[in-house]
């Protein structure tokens, strides 16, 4: 029987997510409430009356042409990308999606298949940074290639989808490269032993200095304290901070779906807030989402204490993955971004390449105009 697609309620969508081992938090109904500048809708794939897939679509209007939108499914949709349900091809899933969205005013669809294509170990990353002959992850043979990921990439190309993979792995959407720590079947001691000596020493230093870690739902002024420190971090590290209202919306929306979906972690030393982070969890996948740290008292290693606390809590929650989110694929010591991957590689784990984001033009002239507009804007 052919798959059909139609809008579903937030309740139906959330019920589907809760039955999966893991779905990206960017594909939960709550995320549509967080992204207030986009119009959102939940779509469901049906085999007869049975819901077998779901996706959160964020609609971005074309400048000066509000009728048409870019339909964006970040890190989604949540469908059978592995091909385990072999009665349907990838086109059986994505064809109805494109038809539905075009009929409802989309000029293009952008998806982010949540499938890995390759992984590199922490040891490989370290060796690559030390080598004069290696400048990018792609210069190293991966420790593991994912056949399912390669199959998805090949089928998307054949179906006319266009890859949106910037050179540094970051674009206007989600990063193609992440750093992840596998947790399945591992104890706290296993994870700690996988870290490099500096990370283990910093965790011990925080404990010796008396850094105290607490968790919060964001109430009692804790979210405001996090945001104040986050703004300080943004000024120091030269990035544009999100407003406090964004984090209030994020916490309220996610906690309304699941009280354990999002947690604020705070590290204090002698009463002073020295670091703060936000952890998000859906099913067996945990994400380090935002972090902040004070310039003073950096030597007490509050950030390391928080990372270790979040890892331990993720293990206790039965998570398969602790996700440190995006990295750039550079390994050149001359690149200012290399410090990011070096820092994350110190935790052990692995660098992961995903299939990246892909566009399917539905109205080619509008899509061409939109890409031109975005290139000039960038």
From TrEMBL:
It comes from the Bacteria. Pfam families: FemAB (PF02388). The keyword Acyltransferase applies. InterPro entries: Acyl_CoA_acyltransferase, FEMABX, PG_Glycine_Bridge_Synth. The keyword Metal-binding does not apply. Keywords: Acyltransferase, Cell shape, Cell wall biogenesis/degradation, Peptidoglycan synthesis, Transferase. Belongs to the FemABX family. This is Peptidoglycan bridge formation peptidyltransferase VanK-Sc.
């Amino acid at each position: 029987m052919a798959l059909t697609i139609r809008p579903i309620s937030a309740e139906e969508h959330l019920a589907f997510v809760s039955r999966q081992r893991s779905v990206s938090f960017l594909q939960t109904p709550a995320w549509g409430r967080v992204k207030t500048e986009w119009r959102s809708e939940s779509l469901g794939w049906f085999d007869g009356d049975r819901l077998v897939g779901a996706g959160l679509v964020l609609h971005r209007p074309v400048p000066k042409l509000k009728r048409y939108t870019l339909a964006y499914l970040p890190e989604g949709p949540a469908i059978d990308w592995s091909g385990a349900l072999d009665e349907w091809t990838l086109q059986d899933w994505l064809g109805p999606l494109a038809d539905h969205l075009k009929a409802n005013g989309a000029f293009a669809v952008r998806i982010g298949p949540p499938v890995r294509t390759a992984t590199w170990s922490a040891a490989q990353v370290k060796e690559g940074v030390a080598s004069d002959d290696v400048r990018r992850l792609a210069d190293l043979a991966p420790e593991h290639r994912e056949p399912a990921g390669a199959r998805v990439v090949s089928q998307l190309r054949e179906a006319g989808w266009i890859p949106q993979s910037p050179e540094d792995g970051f674009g206007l959407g989600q990063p193609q490269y992440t750093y992840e720590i596998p947790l399945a079947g591992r104890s706290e001691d296993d994870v700690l032993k996988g870290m490099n000596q500096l990370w283990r020493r910093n965790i011990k230093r925080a404990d010796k200095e008396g850094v105290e870690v607490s968790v919060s739902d964001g109430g009692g002024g804790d979210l405001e304290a996090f945001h104040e420190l986050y703004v300080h971090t943004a000024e120091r590290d030269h990035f544009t901070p999100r407003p406090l209202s964004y984090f209030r919306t994020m916490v309220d929306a996610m906690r309304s779906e699941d009280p354990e979906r999002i947690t604020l972690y705070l590290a204090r030393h002698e009463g002073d807030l020295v670091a703060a982070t936000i952890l998000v969890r859906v099913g067996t996948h945990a994400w380090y989402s935002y972090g902040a740290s004070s310039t003073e008292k950096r030597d007490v290693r509050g950030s390391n204490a928080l990372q270790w606390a979040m890892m331990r809590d993720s293990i206790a929650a039965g998570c398969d993955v602790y996700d440190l989110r995006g990295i750039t694929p550079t390994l050149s010591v001359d690149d200012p971004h290399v410090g990011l991957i070096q820092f994350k590689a110190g935790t052990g784990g692995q660098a992961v390449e995903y299939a990246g984001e892909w566009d399917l033009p539905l109205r080619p002239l509008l899509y061409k105009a939109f890409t031109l507009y975005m290139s000039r804007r960038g």
